[in-house]
# Entry
Amino acid sequence: MIIDHPLLGPRDVSEFVYLGDASLINRPDSQNENAAKHFYEYLYLRENPAGEHRELWYHEHGDRSWLVVTRDTLTHKITRVELARDTALAAGRNK
Amino acid sequence: MRNSGFKILTEALTGNKGWKANWRQPTPKSAYDVIIVGAGGHGLATAYYLAKEFDITNVAVLEKGWIGSGNVGRNTTIIRSNYMLPGNEPFYEWSMKLWEGLEQDLNYNVMVSQRGILNLFHNDPQRDTFIRRGNAMRLAGADAVLLDREDVQKMCPFFDFNSSRFPIKGGLLQPRGGTVRHDAVAWGYARKGDELGVDILQNCEVQSFMIEGGVCKGVETTKGSIKAKKVAVCVAGSSGRVMAMAGIRVPIESHVMQAFVSEALKPVIPGVVTFGAGHFYVSQSDKGGLVFGGDIDGYNSYAQRGNLPVVEDVCEGGMAIMPMIGRARILRMWGGTVDMSMDGSPFIDKTHIEGLYFNGGWCYGGFKATPASGWCYAHLLANEKPHEVASEFRLDRFSRGHIIDEKGMGAQPNLH
# Structure
């Protein structure tokens, strides 16, 4: 697999480390009264589709940026790559 | 029809015309007591033990392809019970005991070969952890022997003992570990289950569950709707997809695991050996091919094929302990889809939907568990309570904080 890094261009997958489901960006509020339940779901119940999947990859052997990659789990075809920072900012996070 | 030496001789003398199909091709009934979804090793074992141990014979095993077309036909055939944690080790040791009597029990040659499994260690801390693991195994009734460098040298003189990067200091040997002919396990369970009245329905894919008022009453399949008092899902690799049809999210990611077979070589590797500094394990098949594997690819996948960086990594692991295999050519390689659970341990449990049961999350180690998994799942289905050696494999263990994290990796499925 080749990941088309938004800043560095196409890079081999062996330069990256995989974390998983991109919703791991959305850390729950620890002050919420149902925080324990939210953290359980956040940590353990991930998206696991057969098809298009948004997931986090870390460019460890490169510029050490976090990326949100949209990839088909049936074919391994990558359709979209964005900086996780941009994804987080677009979702209303301040950093 | 019993298999025996006499039968083989008679058939040989009469042109082999008396052999019959090992199982029937029945048409689905409208209702069963138990439907098992997935005719892999675990599903067929469940059906067999339901019929044999718990007298429940009105059972169907549904399979979307042909029996054993999933992971029971795609693994590296290793059996072992060298686990450590109390939630795991008694279960795997019991599975090992069932393997030891399986051929007599099934009247079928599954080629159980207890040639031993040797885990190498390369430094002092690793030796300490292996001593601890060996003690935990022995406490659970398993066998474990600590070997020093000289012992390993006698057993496997072909290792690179002079490697300065990963010097071999010894190993933990489980003499009762070994390999089993994987396809024959599926065939043996299918044949004996069928004999006891179990219907094996191939090319019969489950498309949805009939769930009314929180109770599962059957399944809709490509061969029509089939009712059942209990529906038992057993589809490791596709657990996420199948359970999603019942609206249940399971703490599992699906990953791809690759395995390899080399060209046939003269007998050289005595049993199963594993490299302790990387992730590489190898055995030699009766045909002479080296059967080996290593890490999973490490990203979600249902593709049943992997990528080249992992191929390179696995082969580097092999070269690091036995440089002699460098000239051997790889004959075949393939990928299988595995259920990676969040703590590396499996599930055998009821769900919150009455009449719907779940068995999955076997990561890349489900083959060795086949007999005990089948027995414990049958026990749960028949008695509505878990078998004592499988009581920790609960779906709610993450929300309760009782995880069984054998490798201590946390909720990072691609590292287990």
